[in-house]
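ok trying again, last paste got cut off:
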Amino acid sequence: MPLSPGVRLGPYEILDTIGAGGMGEVYRARDTRLGREIALKILPESFACESDRLHRFEQEARAIAALNHSNILAVFDIGQHNGSPFLVSELLEGESLRAVLDCGALPQRKTIEYGVQIAQGLAAAHDKGIVHRDLKPENVFVTKDGRVKILDFGLAKLAQKASDAAAESDGITLTSSQTAAGVVMGTASYMAPEQVRGESADPRTDIFAFGAVLYEMLSGQRAFRRNTPAETMTAVLKEDPPEISDPCHPVSPALDRTIRRCLEKNPEQRFQSIRDLSFALAALSGSDTSGAVRAALNPRKMSPLLWVAMPLALAAVAVATWLLSRPSPRASERSQFAIPVTGEGDVSHMALSEDGKMLAFVSPDAKTAQPVLRVQRVGTPEATVMSETEGASYPFWSPDDAYVAFFANGKLQKLAVSGGPPQTLASVTTARGGSWGKKNVIIYAPAAADVLWRVNADGSNAAPLTANVVGKQENSHRWPVFLPDGDHFLFWAGNFEGAKDDRVSGIYVSSLAANEKKLVTLTHSNMGYAAGNLLYVDDKRQLVTAPFDVSRATVSGEPSVIARSVGFQPSTYWGAFAVSEDGTVVYNASTQAASSALVWLDRSGKELGRVGHVGVLANPSISPDGERVAVDMTDEKANNVDVWIESLQGGTDARFTFDPSEEAIGVWSHDGKLIVYRNTANSPTLFVKPISGREKEKSIFGLKNELGDIYPNCWTPDDKQILSTMSLSGGASAARSSSLVLVPSSGGKPTPFLATKGDVSNGQISPDGKWVTYASKESGDWEVYVTTFPDASGKWQVSRGGGSEPRWRGDTREIFYIGPTGMLMAVPVDSAGTFSTGVPATLFQVYGRAPISSTDLFAYDVTKDGRRFLVNRYVKPDHVMPLTIVLRATANPPK
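nice, full thing came through this time. structure:
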């Protein structure tokens, strides 16, 4: 009996009837606990009469509820009412795909748009071992904003009794209100041949049904519909769908081939993964569909920009076509194309899947400028922005190309390409690359100055890996790359950002046993391995390859040049290239480092003016008199970083440091006469230099024989000590740790000030000299704290929900910091008696780009009155340079 409005089923209050059918009634209801409207479906009483059937329903409902994907109907709850089970799900506004198709066929563009969303939802379920078994237009819903939702996931086989031999082949659905119990007509057209024969279903079964749905969207006709269910099933087994020949809806040959491959009778001849199918569809989203379209491109009316874009677009289509149809084995000739990428700015980091077909890359978000991870089919004009990847850097693929791992917000994370939230695997600081081996072990560099670590792909057993093979002059291991056996790996080891003429720094090979390492070649670059070849960037910034004997771990012959110029970041030794297992290479001809400018902003975020020029900048520090700013500036041609002094009064700028290595983080003394900075000529060392420039800099402390790093934070009020962050590796059995130390400004060993359970950074002494604010990961995430100075006897947490980069206002009455989403926060401080803080207030978006080096620590500084902020803000380029893809890069490279 239908339920009336106002009836309560536990916390759910019935509002109205949505529909009813042989498989139950669907109602609009309200969740009184959360105050939201939901859909509630009461299933037939027959479910409650059979305990096994009810148990399987509950089991699979829980599995679907755990999927949590934007293209799958969200299931919130299950329960029982008067003996009948019910299902609670999100309430959708829109119409079913069947209702859409009742109005006729869809254009190719819309078909692909819907198809990609359906495929992404299917992929999320397949990754969890859930097969739909009854995909059809009735079970696909299109919301008012164009979002596609798959209904009845994984529940189809439960609709009939377990003893019924036709249970899996009939595929009657649970939650569709339009399908009557026991009727096959609505689903037979979408059955795979193996379902018709009564065989078990697997993900390829869904791919067949998906092909039938795609066919119907394009043609407006069902692929296998006949007069009776028996005749329809016979057609599924023996016949192919008619050609699509509607001149009003032209179909590209590539899309037609994709659909036909989905509808192969033999599952082995279909796409073997819905993820591959998803990317194949995405690759066609920019394809030309007809001669009529080509004729519409009138050369006389095309803008100059279009003339520039067309060759890239044609190259993209050519590459996409080749990738979808390339034969095996591949030919030996080398081919090269320029490929456009989809993003709002420069590509910073990238990785190729092992099959060379998919590219993961990092570029800024359009609204926040935060770096986000994108995945793009190589050679296609569209990329997918992966959710919850803000702050991403250095992505790398799993061996099966199902996951992309990356670093963000102090964590190593992995993300299923099919969708879903990222999973945290380990903690990091200034990560320097990772690699995922075939034994499901991940090797990663958690910090710029540290050994390599290992962790299982499920996040268990994180531990140092290469601590036993650290050389005397080495202070960094980074850029690991697994070799094909999943046990041996390549990595860079040497003098971190030190002298370029040392005899230690280079590419080494070791194994998971990590008992020894062997030098392969001297260089300062990340590396790649493909088809018996080693690839890296040489001292001339050329991307080169050399034959590599894996068994002997040796290279033979002179390196051959793949690219005469490739982007390179001197502060990290990272070359802008990625390589797949089969020898496909993608590279960037420029550094593509995130360009920025120093911008004055008021407390509302209004821009008041700019300082200096656009460049690769970091760590602005305003002088005590407010007339100058010290800032790190990367010289891309000279491969080094220097501290510059720029005028805030419209005067001239001046280079302050001149050593041919990284010199960064210039911090002013309180009297404005000295600057302390970090130099890496031989090892991380603090130098003090007079601002006048008339006296030589003086080394005050350095890490000579220890694996670690040190960088200055601020001076004590009397300018006799410098509060600094120092990190040291604990060796083979201990994690690297960082702490705050006080270094005498006249020189000498540091004295400890503050150590926490987690990393600590960015210590700032208050203007009155009584307090220190700092960022720490002692809770697992970066938060801002305050302690007393000079004894560090108390502790107060300032930030809420994450925070970093704290700065004081000149009167000690306010602390500023950057929240986890890149927003600048302001916290009132009362330190007259017992220290206390007020509620953090949001000011404006500061920045979001990934750090350009291990010492990119501060994105802003603030004037003493707290009214103006000098922010190092990302600058979107006028033009995003295309990448270059080289197919069979190691075959006959140019001389």
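cool. The radius of gyration is 31 Å. The chain has 13 helices and 61 strands.
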